[in-house]
Structures are given as structure tokens and as C-alpha cells.
Design a protein that fits this description.
globular, about 10% strand, mainly alpha, 4 helices, single chain, binds zinc ion
Length: about 100
């Protein structure tokens, strides 16, 4: 990840605030795993019209494998790859079709 907005002080501050508020990987947490987050992800990608500096609930803390899985899915036309990667959770972390 490089370039705007990731090189800005505003992003670094926002990223630090998100990791301080949510230090664990959110997708892993949903699956009952405790993994420290290393990345802060835009829930709505900037490329898809999401804000570059959203409020904290517009961001998701993720570990590297989860973040890479999402980035790969978003970068490819078939975004369902991320759904499979998260084993039943959509990109917002909601169970897909779950009644539980
Ligand atoms: Zn994870």
C-alpha cells in the first residue's frame, strides 16, 4: 500500500487511533481467533468511492493475511473470493445468510 492517502500525517494518525481502539483483527475475532491487527482497512475502498479519512467505524483492523485476502478480492472482478476467504462473513463482518 503506497501513495495518497497513506503517506499523509492525517492517515497515520487515523490508523494509529483505529489500532488503539481496535487492536485485534476483526475478521479473525469473528472466527474466534485472537490475532493482533497490523493493517487498517477502508471498509468501503477509496477506489469504490469511500472516504479516504472515514470515522473509525468506517475502518476495520485486520491482520496481514486477512488484509491481503480482502485486497486481492477487491482488486479482482470476483469479490466473492473475500467472502470465501473469511469463511462465511461478508466484508462488513456480518455472517452471510446466517441464522445464528
Ligand atoms: Zn485476520
Amino acid at each position: 500500500m503506497s501513495g495518497w492517502p497513506y503517506t499523509t500525517t492525517a492517515w497515520r494518525n487515523l490508523r494509529r487511533a483505529k489500532l488503539a481502539a481496535s487492536p485485534l483483527c476483526h475478521p479473525c475475532e469473528l472466527r474466534g481467533r485472537t490475532v493482533l491487527a497490523k493493517a487498517v482497512d477502508h471498509i468501503v475502498a477509496i477506489a469504490k468511492g469511500g472516504p479516504a479519512f472515514p470515522p473509525l467505524d468506517g475502518l476495520m483492523s485486520m491482520c496481514e493475511p486477512c488484509h491481503n485476502a480482502k485486497t486481492n478480492a477487491v482488486d479482482h472482478p470476483n469479490a466473492s473470493g473475500f467472502r470465501r476467504a473469511l469463511a462465511g462473513y461478508d466484508v462488513d463482518g456480518n455472517p452471510i445468510g446466517g441464522d445464528w
